[in-house]
Amino acid sequence: xxxxxxxxxxxxxxxxxxxxxxxxxxxxxxxxxxxxxxxxxxxxxxxxxxxxxxxxxxxxxxxxxxxxxxxxxxxxxxxxxxxxxxxxxxxxxxxxxxxxxxxxxxxxxxxxxxxxxxxxxxxxxxxxxxxxxxxxxxxxxxxxxxxxxxxxxxxxxxxxxxxxxxxxxxxxxxxxxxxxxxxxxxxxxxxxxxxxxxxxxxxxxxxxxxxxxxxxxxxxxxxxxxxxxxxxxxxxxxxxxxxxxxxxxxxxxxxxxxxxxxxxxxxxxxxxxxxxxxxxxxxxxxxx
Length: 288
Fold this sequence. Notes:
By secondary structure, the protein is an alpha/beta fold. It has a single domain, classed as 3-Layer(aba) Sandwich (Rossmann fold). It is built from eight helices and nine strands. It has helices at 27-30, 36-58, 62-79, 94-107, 121-129, 182-191, 219-222, 268-271, and strands at residues 111-115, 134-138, 152-155, 172-176, 196-199, 232-237, 240-245, 258-263, 280-284. Strand 4 (172-176), helix 6 and strand 5 (196-199) form a beta-alpha-beta unit. Helix 2 packs across helix 3, helix 3 (62-79) packs across helix 4 (94-107) and helix 4 packs parallel to helix 5. It is globular. The model has no long low-confidence stretch (mean pLDDT 93).
């Protein structure tokens, strides 16, 4: 296809020096808006899409939340280019990062437990949204950690083996992005006194190919009345074929624990950034 003469292209400068000293590019760096007016326009679309979910999580009327959400989206678009982990391939990128930032900012927990530190991007993001919160980030392998956000306690073990500070259930958030069975994580969080939970990669059975190592059974699978006990699920991703036998007992009857559930919207149609998130907020019933 011939180049469009109406589009002026500025070539990227050559990358000099040894590989270790070259800039680390992310997909958003190679394809993002520079024009402030267009960023503002995109921000308006994002705020409209996100306001219903954020209002539901914060339990405030949608009209009352429209302006605060729009302001928070603007803040995020200014913040995101300053992230210390520029390339977070395999982890959260623009869409998921925006959802996490807004949920944290409007839920305003005093304590956050993160399971799935990975490179440290989400812990940094939580610190930006919650400057005063106590944050504990856990991962069974911190070998890929690239940034230690200020004031965040990182623990190299499963979160169930970590001693947590005393916290008030209504002022705490457990954030799971560790590709571990959602039903198990919800049961564990409930047992440890958490009520506010945020899950990533909550895809239904028919979309399991959307992420590598899905946290099966996902919450969406556990709540799907059409899935048959003992049904074998088969999907293909990047040339590999996966099989999983769904058994209702593995869902640990999580439905009875749930007080409220809010799905964050898929922002791909607005930003054209992949992957879709499947991010889901869950409020659990008081632990008895």
